[in-house]
Every structure is written in C-alpha cells, then in structure tokens.
Batch of 4 targets.
Target 1
Amino acid sequence: MANVSFLGLGVMGYPMAGHLAAKGHEVTVYNRTASKANAWAEQHGGWAASNPAMAVSEAEFVMCCVGNDVDLRSVVLGADGALTGMQKGAVLVDHTTASANVARELHAAAAEKGIGFIDAPVSGGQAGAENGVLTIMCGGDQADYDRAAPVIDAYARSHRLLGGPGAGQVTKMVNQICIAGLVQGLAEGLNFAVKAGLDAEAVVDVISKGAAGSWQMENRYKTMLADKFDFGFAVDWMRKDLGICLDEAKQNGARLPVTALVDQFYGEVQDMGGNRWDTSSLLRRLRH
C-alpha cells in the first residue's frame, strides 16, 4: 500500500480516488472547489488539503485529473503546485486528456527535480471510472511506469506504456479520432434506417453481430433512438479533445479530414445548445 495524493475530483477523479482508498492506500485529495474535497474525505476516510503542494508533501505517487493544459500547468507548476511540494523520487501520474506538448514539458520539469512523470489519459468515461475498469494509455519512462502500475491497478481494467513522454496523450488522440468517425457513422446509419421506415432496433440487432458492430453501437443506439443524450462524454469535452488532435496533426503532418469535419458537426451541436449533451447527439443534428 502506498501514500497517494489525487489532484482534481471531477466526474472521473472523484471515483478514481475512491478506488485508491478502497484498495487500502492512504489518500490525500485536493480540488479547486474545497467543499468537494471535504465531501470526498468524509465519504472515504482520507484527507483534504487546501492546495496541491500540501496535498503531495508526503506522497509516493501523485495522481492528477483536471480539465486542460492550462489547468494542468496551474496545478503542477503554479506557486503552490505539485512540483513545489513533491518529494524527490516520487512519481506524478497525469490522467488529464491534454496535449502531448504539455506532457513533455511536465516530464522535463519533473525530471529536473528528480521526480518521475507519466502521462496517462483514460478511456471508459464516468461509468468506467465509477466501476474501476478504465483503459489507460501511458507515456514516460519504463522504471516510473513499473513503479506506478500497481497503484494504477486500483481503477484500471487495463493500462500499457506506449512510449516515451507524450505517447499516452498521442494514443488518446488516436482513440478520440476513431470514436468521432464511429459515432458520426452510427448517427447517419440510424437516421437512414428511420427515414427508410425500418425498425431501427431490429436493424441494429442484426448488423451489430457483423462487421458493423462496435462499442458505440452496443452502448449508445437505444438512447440515440430515444433522443436521449444525457449519458456519457459531453460535446464540450469532445471538442476540446478533437482540437488537441487537430493541433497535433499540424505538427506531425497527419491528415484528419473526417475528424475535422466531425469537429465542425459538434460545433453545430453546440450552436443547438448541446454543449453538455453526450457525443452521440450527432444524431439530433441530423434530425433537425
């Protein structure tokens, strides 16, 4: 069992930190909204700190899950940031979906202080976090990953080191690129089936058992057909992620024509007021 800190208690971080406590780790938490950290500590029996530096002062491992590059730099590099309080030899594991550039920046800043850094964005959504079955894509140094792996096991079904600093974030970009195209294709297929007068549920029951089957089809088609889009990953978050993908593509020369198009479609969903609808709401755009 380890002394662990968790920075950021959003819809993902709150249950992830809970799994660490449930596995017997000693957990100290920090959240920008202090009342949430206090509520977590009361529920799980850990401790709440008033700033990141205090939260990490005795931690062997520091887990972080915040909103974006700006939030990440603030909580790690700020005046009271994690790197001002972490012990030499500790490992910082960042679960934020952020840019590969900031991952490399933080890896370098941590290394100067003798601290390990793993970029480790997650897939599986809120349900995956709550059930402790996330898939985690990691980048960094093998020795740091090997040390952190048993702690990450508390909330992950699978995790793997994909390469050096930034490799986890780039892998998460691949994940989001694939999801964007799949959801748009599923939305178009379901809309086409309805317009053709077919029983769309019966259609999915058949085609899901063949080459068209996917996680998105199995887990989203019923709510999509019911015009319910309040379950899963929000459009605002997906647009943030796709923006990261498109920026990285400008650097590495990859062409992402479908991703760029679907990003525009999500922009139209936002214009419809769907900022907090889940990503399968691409179907509503086709209906209207």
Target 2
Amino acid sequence: MAIHFNQRTIVPVVTAGGISRQPLLNKQFVPDILFELDRLTISPNGRKALTIASTELAWFQMTDGTATMHTAEHELSVTANHIGLLPPGFEGTLSSDAGATLLFALVPDVQKLDPAISGDPPIFRVLDWQNEPLLQSEHDARKRIYLVTPKMFGTRAIRGEMIIYPPGTECPVHHHRGGAHFMYFLAGQGTCYAGSDQVMTVHPGDLVYYYDLEPHWVKGGTDGDLIFSEFFVPSAVATVWADPSKICTWIPTGLNHRGSRPSRIIEKHAHSHLADV
C-alpha cells in the first residue's frame, strides 16, 4: 500500500542555525528505503551547513522563499524554481535573509546505486526548472519537465521530473520495477490511486510514496493544474504499463514553462528511453 500524508502532520525538529527539520521519508518509516527525505525550513537570517560525505549524494528542491548557496567557488541565489545536486564531498552553506523552505534528500550509500560515481563524480549544479524544456504527452494534456537525469547531472543514482496535469487529465495504469519513488505535490488538487482499492485525494504539501511494483495512476482535479515533482531512486527504475499501447511518448513543445525558448533541446521520445534526456 502506498504511503500518503501531508507535511503538516510531521512534527518539526528545531536544530542549530535557525533550521526546522521535518523528516518525511527514512528507514524509520520505510525500512528498505534507499534515501532520506527531509523538509527544511530556514528561519530569517538562518544558516544551514551542508556537508556531504564522500560516500553520499544529495539534492534539494526549493519550494518557497529565497536563499543563497555559499561554496568555496560559488555564491548563488536560489528561489522556489531551483533544483540542486550536491555531489560526494560537497561542502557549503545555505542561508536566507527572509526565510526559505526546501526539500532535501540524501542517498547515504550512493556507490551501490551508481558504481561509476567514484571514478567520475558529478559536479555541483543548480538549475531553474522553469527554463527547462516543456514536453507534451502524445496521448493527452499532461506536460513534463525533467529535473534530474543522467545526462543533466551525470549520475544514475536518482531521476527527477516535474509533472503537470490540467483539470481532468488522467494517466494510464502502470508500475515501476527496480526501485521506488515519491511524488511531492506543489499546486492544485487531484486523486492518486494505488493497487486495487487505495484512493488518495492530494493537495499542496502532500507526499505519496509508491513501493516497487505497486500499480498506480493519477488524475487531475477540476480547478487548475495539478503540479507535482517526482523522484526515482535509482534512475534506472523501469516503467511497465498495464496496457502497452498506452506507453507515454513525450513531444517537445519548443518552449519552457515561461513560454520562451528553453535552455536546451530534447527530441521526441518514449517514457522508457530516458538516458539521453
């Protein structure tokens, strides 16, 4: 059975530097999980140290506010549109004058998921997802933006996507093989289905975690776009469609989410061929 809850149900733990931490997913909740996921709230003038061990990989998604990422080589402003990858051995700090909120995920033993990472580690990188190519489903009104792929970030440990469901849009029944994934809902409302009888109404701040091989599908609501980010660990998780004729094919729109030219070009491709995007 899928795990479903809203972030407000998780009691925050206040730590040093004006940081409030809500543990969303970890081995306490899911014993065989391959990563840890927290929601971090940085209070005004707060500062979060980010130290990633040589055996770890981390990524973050800003969800509210503005912060500054400080490293030995960089000082970057990050907003609610930014996704960042923190490679093994990364050291830096994240500070905010007015306050900010982010999702922060850590893969504790990344070499098990990406054996090549020790010889060819990825670099620290931050991107604005609204500048990335906007793709349109060939079969319906759904849209997709890739957040983390092997080509974009140089690791096969994780994969991330932003998904947009206009009102009433529904995806076909499918399951994933080779790993688990979660969805974090950012805007709108809709319904998630899992197995034969699990029905979950979702709103902003909700998280749904699907186990390996668990059949599921999603339907948008009636008012406004349902928008969520989803992450897979590892990236090579396969998608299996209950009806093979419904396999998702994604067509580039030639635009980004802002309606202007995207940061790069992606060719038309099926959902099962993600290594080159």
Target 3
Amino acid sequence: MSSPRLILASASPRRRELLAQLGVAFEVVIAQVTEHEEPTTDPRVMVAHNAALKSEWVGVRHPDAFVLGADTTVFLDGHALNKPRDLAEARAMLRRLAGRTHTVFTGLALRRQCIGLRRDEGVASEVTFKPLDESAIDAYLDRVHVLDKAGAYAIQEHGDRLIAGWQGSFTNIVGLPLEATKQILTQAGLLG
C-alpha cells in the first residue's frame, strides 16, 4: 500500500523550495480560488481564511491526499500590505515600511478530505526596515521582481539592502514557516 500523497496548494516557487527542504515528497496543485485581500481585515483571519480556501479547493479534488495551503501577508498600521498591483504601489509600500517594524503573518492549513482532517496554524514574525531614500528603493526595485510578493519585498533577495533586523521565523518571512510546517506534517504522520 502506497503512502498518502502530499500536495502543496500554492503557486509560490518560494514555498516549493522551502517545503522541499523538509525532505518530504510532494506535488503542486494550484488552487483556482479568489483570495480575500481586504487590507483592513485582521491579518491573522485573512491568512487563515486564504490558506484554508486553497487547501480545501484542492482537497475536494484530491480527497485521499494531504493538502497543505499557506498564505502570507505583511501588516503595518492596521492594514495588510498584500502583493502590489504595479511598481507604483510597490514603491509606495516600501516607503511606508522604511525605518519601521512590521509583522509578517502566515496561515497554514492542512486538510485530508477523506478522513476529515483539519489542522491550522498561524505564525507571526517581526521585520524592521532600514530608513530608505528614493534611490535605495529604486535600486531594490531594479534588482528584485516584487509584484508577486506581499509587502513588495523578499527578505531572501537582496534583503540586506532593506532590512535592519528580524525576529521570529525567517522562513515565515520568506513565505512558509518551516518549524510550524514540520510540526503539523509530523502530527499528521507525514514526517518521522
């Protein structure tokens, strides 16, 4: 009897790379859902909702598989900074983050429809940006494609140009908190 499949319900190449570090076999199925991205929604609620939405959409189509969904956002001044629509919005986000500390929230949702398994986890990390002038913002935007990244930045791509420090899970800031992911996959029997 073969072991149950693990599916990552995410289009993010960063999540694929991170999950591969745990040494568990998985495949990717991208959930065809519309994520809730209202900037004034409590970010913990938003990322939990979106992670569950993705894992449940894929889980209904693959009921025997374990399905992992994840969603990440950046939170500052009572607003979520999701993926920017264009470079102008990305620039505005980086200006807002400059010289300040914000929180990165990720929601994880593991589902296995055939047995009714539902495991959810939320992780928060803090990131402090350096003060940035327009030339520093332009230099960063010239080097990094930011339109697919919450908050318009990637800590792992030239992050030293922007970031003064961080607390919590580094991999959470990248987009998939490996410590929490390993824990829920271990509890589900997918990791030894």
Target 4
Amino acid sequence: MESRKVAFIGLGVMGYPMAGHLATAGHRVTVYNRTPSRAMKWIAEHGDGDSSRAAPTPAAAAADADIVLMCVGNDDDVRAVALGAGGALASMRAGSVLVDHTTASAALARELHKAAAGKEVDFIDAPVSGGQAGAENGKLTIMCGGDAAVFARVETVFGSYARAVTLLGGPGSGQLTKMVNQICIAGMAQALAEGIAFAEKAGLDVLAVLDVIGKGAAQSWQMDNRGKTMAADQFDFGFAVDWMRKDLAICIAEARTNGAQLPVTALVDQFYARLQVSGGGRRDHSSLVRLLRDPK
C-alpha cells in the first residue's frame, strides 16, 4: 500500500487502535486528541522517528495531510474539530480528503460536504460498526457516503482497520446506513434479553439453550458475542448504554424527518433510559436483560 500522510483526530476507544493500524500499515500519522496525554501515550506506542507525531490542534494535525480522519463523540464534537477555531478545515489543502468516522447525523454529513467543497476539499462520511474489538482487531465494517471517485482514493487506507468497506450513495448515505445498523442492534438486543430472561424463568440451562438455538434461525451477532455474558450478568465492557442512546436519538430524529415508523426502536430507547437512571449508562448495551430480571 502506498504510504500516505494522514491525520487522525480523536483517540478514544475506537480511534486509538484505528490510528495504530494506520501507523502499522506504514502511513505517516499525525494525531490529535482533546486530552494531550492520550496522544502522547499513542506516540509512545506507535511513534517511529518522524513518521508519527502529535499535534496541539486539529488544524495543526491536518496541515499538509492527504487524508484527515475524525472519530469523536457527536455532532457538536465533529463541528468543533472540523469547523471550529483551529479546526481541521482551516488548514487542509485543496485536493485532500476529510473523513468522518463518527456516528453522527446525515444532516451534519451534508453540512461538512458543503463546507469542505467550499475549500476544494473532498469529504466522505464513514461511520463504523464492530465495536472496540473490531477496531483493535482491524475488522471493522465501514459504511460510506460520498462521491465514488473520492471513495476510491481512501478505500485502501480504510482497509488498514476494516474487513468490509462499502460506498452506499452520496453524502449522508453512510450515516443513514449506520442508523439502520443501530435500529437492528437495539431490536435484536432486546429480543435476546427477553429470550434469556424467559429461559431463566422456565428453569432451562440458558447456555445450552443459546448453544442449540444459535445453530438455527435465531442465530445473530448479538447471540454469538453477548449471549454468554448476558447469562452471566457481565456488562463491564463493550458498547455503552450512553452511546446507544446517543445513536438511537439520531435514528429517531431522522425518522421524524423521513416519515419512517420506529415503534420498537422508540420503546427500546426508553428501556435504555431506565438503565441510565439506575446508574447503568456505562454498561454494555446488552444490559437490557437486567430490566427483565428486576423490573423495579
């Protein structure tokens, strides 16, 4: 793979290993993180002479980069690091590409596409799925929106940390596809929680039940990766309830705009709200089963 000058903005649980895979693949990586100590930790692990460095602002990280990748928290965070004072677009050169890996709104993706075009910078919205384990193992799924010619320029770079990279349409299409992903996850997680709680009440061997139905039509990623930990009441890991609520809020807001009906998603979102109230916001999204074990 041709070595590229890349900037990675946001070194959270996803961005930290993603940026690491870029460095391992031989790209020259400049990182920025709101907490500088996190960036310095990354440099200590992945720095190699002049090939990797930390920058004090998004603009400083993006200067002279071929590709600038962002993976931060929400729409406001993306606007701050891309469009705010000292934001990436302030220093990006014409012909470079801005990529947003954040799960954000489709409206923001279109806003960034327009703002980037005004500076002759290209843009791809590229939210990811696969969680922390997928980021660490370089096996994320990336859903992209943007122009085909621009996508072709960044696809191989995404391959540093992804097993599947797909262009779904124009600007915003990646974010809309990620919304579909989160809608399906919420529904499946609740169904799995109800199945496990039912098996417990029925006095069945839950692990044996999951093993046998996992070989049939009920099989899913949620069952394969969360079934055993749900049965064991273990949730101190994974994709947090707080993050799921943020994502479902984006889905529900978009549905109000396009007229889609999301009755199950809206209901599960309220279940997640109950988990937050009880102090479970940082637990894995599969902790839905706790509401069925103790409905108080």
